[in-house]
Specification:
With 210 residues, the protein is mainly β. The protein contains one helix and ten strands. The chain has a single domain, classed as Beta Barrel (Porin). This is Opacity protein-like surface antigen.
């Protein structure tokens, strides 16, 4: 529930920027869309519980990613609000056995993109975004000697940034197929270690132009 509330509040805060975009018009158009894809989370360092806690490294399986977006297209430049979700399962923990757990990452980003006009139906783009990331999850494993079971829960909200590139294909004047890569980064210390969460995503989807 607190994640839903946080996302709703952030999205509402971002709406004035989108309204202002319309006020600068100039022959552009609004668009909305969504994408699905595959995401990879880089290894995450975390500290065990207890006074003699040591730093461990968790490795995660690549998994599902999704995003919804709405924005305004000025021509060569686009501004959009994007809400994203990525989910990862724990694959291994350094010097630990029987690892389990997962990490869910939610993001609300304000993106700016530049489109390169090729004079064809294909339009490459580069993108830069800033916003907020929300991460929650659990890491559980057995110590290497089998004597204890460690269980680590974490939750945090932090500023986030992303860069990306891709290409859009114009199916018709209303619908574009969009595919691209993005790297999303967010600092975090909720796992007990000052670290940067880094996620790589390959996604494909559709944009509808109004």
């Amino acid at each position: 529930m607190r994640i839903v509330s946080s996302l709703a509040a952030i999205a509402i805060m971002g709406m004035p920027a989108m309204v202002l975009a319309d006020g600068h018009g100039g022959g552009g158009n609004f668009y909305a869309g969504g994408s699905l894809g595959y995401a990879i989370l880089d290894d995450v360092d975390f500290k065990e519980s207890g006074s003699n806690a040591t730093t461990k490294t968790a490795d995660f399986d690549g998994s599902f990613a999704a995003a919804l977006r709405g924005g305004y297209d000025y021509g060569d430049i686009r501004a959009e609000l994007e809400i994203g979700y990525r989910s990862f399962d724990v694959d291994s923990v350094s010097t630990g056995t029987n690892p389990s757990g997962d990490a869910d990452f939610y993001s609300v980003m304000v993106n700016g993109a530049y489109d390169f006009d090729t004079g064809t139906a294909y339009t490459p783009y580069v993108m830069l975004g800033l916003g907020v990331g929300i991460v929650e999850g659990n890491i559980s494993y057995t110590s290497s000697d089998g004597s204890t079971v460690e269980d680590k829960n974490f939750y945090g909200v932090a500023p986030a940034g992303q860069i990306g590139l891709g290409v859009a294909y114009e199916m018709n004047e209303d619908v574009d197929v969009v595919g691209g890569y993005s790297l999303l980064m967010a600092p975090q210390d909720e796992t007990g270690e000052d670290d940067t969460i880094m996620m790589h995503s390959l996604m494909i989807g559709l944009n509808y132009n109004f």
